[in-house]
Amino acid sequence: MLLGGAAVARPLSAEAQQPTILGIGFLGAASPDSYTPFVGGFLRGLKEAGFTDGENVAIAYRWAEGQYDRLPALAADLVAKQVAVIVATGGLPPSLAARDATKTIPIVFTLGSDPVKFGLVASLNRPGGNVTGVSLFAYLLDAKRVELMHELVPGAKTIGLLANPNNPQSETQFADVEAASRVFGQQVIILKASSDSDIDEAFAVLAQKNVGALLVSADPFFLSRRHQIVGLVASRAIPTMYEWRQFADAGGLMSYGVDLVDAYRQAGVYVAKILKGAKPADLPILQPTKFEFVINLRTVKKTGLEIPAKLLALADEVIE
């Protein structure tokens, strides 16, 4: 299996000689190296339902490498390949690109935004069209992250929010964080970044604004640049809350969100159902049942912060 760039597991033209092999298009917003564990979860879900890449299914991978403007062309290419299902991963942009590219090929998304609000499905229980998938609840968890951060640094009067302006969900994220922060009398400064250099510049601004804490919003580009972001946070010793545990695993202070690997496994199970004849219109949007609050104690010790006993008691996992 090839995961690099816009690589394809094997040319679908060659698969035409093997009619028993079905084609899946995997449309990713980020880069293959940063999504290896999630692709692994997806493949595990397929295998649970009897499909193995290279045996009875072939996967064509298309990666936007964080350049969301590439997604429409990548989605159109998968449609031209006449794949049986398209998996749109990494947030709202790939889901919208896949939806706009086809009204007939089934689409399974992994999505942190509200799929009803953005017109992907008619309802969560009855999607109604050719689109279904897995909700990551990212857009519903910002208030909880603000609350957890306030427990850690109650004296922070100004907090920063790192957001990607190319993500259609960014304005909603900002509004949600601002509303949640207002409860604690905090001001929010939004830091926009959609490239590596933007991230560096955002942290330069952060140093000038007397920001007491930072939240990193849910975005596949940020996830793919987690080591860069965690390194910049460490150099400035600013308390930071992340959306996904992969940041905490990389040395980030705290994260709160769903189990992403399991969400991708669920997407694999849904793709298998569709390959076996199920219609997306009849498959309700899957919603996560497992949420992870992770604290990295090694990072805590480096920053000199005192973690309240209440936070430690709430943590699902403490990295020591």
Total number of strands: 12
The ordered string of helix (H) and strand (E) elements is HEHEHEHEEHEHEHEHHEHEHEHHE
Query: What structural category do the secondary elements indicate?
Result: alpha/beta
Q: Termini, distance in Å?
A: 34 Å
Mean pLDDT: 90
Low-confidence stretches are 1-19
Instruction: Give the strand content.
Output: 15-25%
Shape: elongated
Tally of alpha and pi helices: 13
Helix proportion range: 25-40%
Q: Specify the biggest β-sheet.
A: 7 strands, mixed
Radius of gyration using CA atoms only: 20 Å
Strand order of the largest sheet: 7-6-8-9-10-11-12
Compose a concise summary of this entry:
With 320 residues, the chain is α/β, with parallel strands linked by helices.
Please describe what this structure looks like.
It is a single chain. The chain has helices spanning 12-15, 36-48, 71-80, 92-101, 142-152, 170-182, 196-208, 220-224, 226-236, 245-249, 260-275, 297-303, 309-314, and strands at residues 22-28, 57-63, 85-89, 107-111, 131-135, 158-163, 187-192, 213-216, 240-242, 254-258, 291-296, 317-319. With 320 residues, it is of the alpha/beta class. Strands 7-6-8-9-10-11-12 form a 7-stranded mixed sheet, with helices on both faces. A 5-stranded parallel sheet has the order 2-1-3-4-5, with helices on both faces. It is elongated and about 55 Å long. Residues 1-19 have low confidence and may be disordered.
What is the element layout, followed by pairings?
Blueprint: H1 12-15, E1 22-28, H2 36-48, E2 57-63, H3 71-80, E3 85-89, H4 92-101, E4 107-111, E5 131-135, H5 142-152, E6 158-163, H6 170-182, E7 187-192, H7 196-208, E8 213-216, H8 220-224, H9 226-236, E9 240-242, H10 245-249, E10 254-258, H11 260-275, E11 291-296, H12 297-303, H13 309-314, E12 317-319
Parallel strand pairs: 1-2, 1-3, 3-4, 4-5, 6-7, 6-8, 8-9, 9-10, 11-12
Antiparallel strand pairs: 10-11
Helix pairs in contact: 2-11, 3-4, 5-6, 7-9
